[in-house]
């Protein structure tokens, strides 16, 4: 007689566990909307955020994420000032920091006023994160310094944004050095 029973199930009860993480849900939804084919394009650029692709010039985050980052940075700036009873105190949020570090060089996402607060925020950074941001800023400076100089009148929008990115990288490197 054979040593197994018909219909016997293993430890997992014979069923495969399904990945129920947020990324899997998004991927499943995109595949379902696309009738099981290749996933649709991600309009927000979340794939670039996950992969760390910082060269996504055509994608821009939603206005609500920009507003959340602005609120986070303003609460950081006012963290030592007295606040009302209903106003929560500032707390570090890793996800917000990652978002800010990802988009801080983009002048069309982080405006000039908000970038000044970002510089204050960066001054308070410590340890490995500070070293990594400094290294990234120096890398941006090296890459963009190689680009050819174009007269201001003849610059395209892309060239103007790259010039602003270079200036911001210089400022970040100066503060963190």
TrEMBL record:
Protein name: WKF domain-containing protein
InterPro entries the UniProt entry points to: WKF (IPR019327)
The WKF domain, residue ranges: 72-140
Pfam annotation, one family: WKF
Domain of life per record: Eukaryota
Organism: Aphanomyces invadans
Region Disordered, residue ranges: 1-63
Lineage: Eukaryota, Sar, Stramenopiles, Oomycota, Saprolegniomycetes
Biased composition (Basic and acidic residues): 19-45
């Amino acid at each position: 007689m054979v040593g197994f029973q018909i219909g016997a199930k293993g430890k997992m009860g014979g069923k495969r566990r399904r990945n129920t993480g947020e990324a899997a849900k998004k991927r499943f939804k995109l595949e379902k909307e696309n009738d099981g084919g290749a996933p649709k394009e991600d309009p927000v650029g979340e794939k670039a955020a996950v992969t760390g692709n910082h060269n996504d010039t055509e994608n821009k985050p939603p206005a609500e994420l920009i507003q959340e980052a602005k609120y986070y940075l303003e609460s950081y700036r006012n963290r030592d000032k007295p606040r009302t009873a209903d106003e929560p105190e500032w707390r570090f949020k890793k996800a917000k920091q990652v978002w800010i570090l990802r988009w801080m060089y983009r002048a069309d996402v982080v405006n000039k006023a908000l970038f000044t607060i970002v510089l204050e925020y960066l001054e308070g950074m410590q340890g490995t994160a500070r070293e990594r941001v400094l290294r990234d800023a120096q890398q941006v400076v090296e890459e963009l310094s190689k680009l050819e100089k174009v007269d201001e009148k003849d610059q395209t929008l892309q060239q103007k944004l790259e010039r602003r990115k270079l200036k911001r990288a210089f400022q970040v490197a100066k503060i963190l050095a």
